[in-house]
Design goal:
single chain; Transcription Regulator spoIIAA; globular
Length: about 120
């Protein structure tokens, strides 16, 4: 699989998906006009990646803000990576949030409950 590298814009986060290292990073702000156009190819990549992942995959989410439509797209990313659990390999989500941002912390906890993927809540 080819890695993905996308630069951050005012409306979209940076993306660094490195399949060899098993490290997938989404960082910045996410409020694209059309989340399906932005996240669609990422979800497809994750679906392919989940079929033959390395022993350990870490998805690092470090978003300052995301809108409602991005929330649904993130959930789709998580669900596509959940397939890794069927391979008996490890998938973790490292959820970064500002230490005083209860809303972002709660969002991470909600995603963890919905997906049943282990989340590591990391304040910064």
């Amino acid at each position: 699989m080819e890695p993905i590298s996308i630069r951050e814009t005012e409306a979209t986060p940076s993306i660094e998906f490195n399949p060899e290292k098993g490290l997938l990073i989404i960082k910045g702000r996410s409020h694209p006009e059309n989340a399906k156009i932005f996240y669609g190819p990422l979800i497809e990549w994750c679906e392919s990646y989940a079929k033959d992942p390395p022993e350990k995959t870490v998805l690092r989410i470090q978003l300052e803000h995301f809108n409602t439509i991005s929330s649904k797209s993130l959930l789709d990313v998580f669900r596509s990576l959940k397939e890794i659990q069927k391979t008996e390999k490890l998938i973790l989500i490292d959820w970064y949030y500002e230490s005083d941002d209860e809303e972002l912390l709660d969002a991470g906890k909600t995603y963890e409950e919905i997906t049943d993927i282990p989340f590591i809540m990391t304040p910064y």
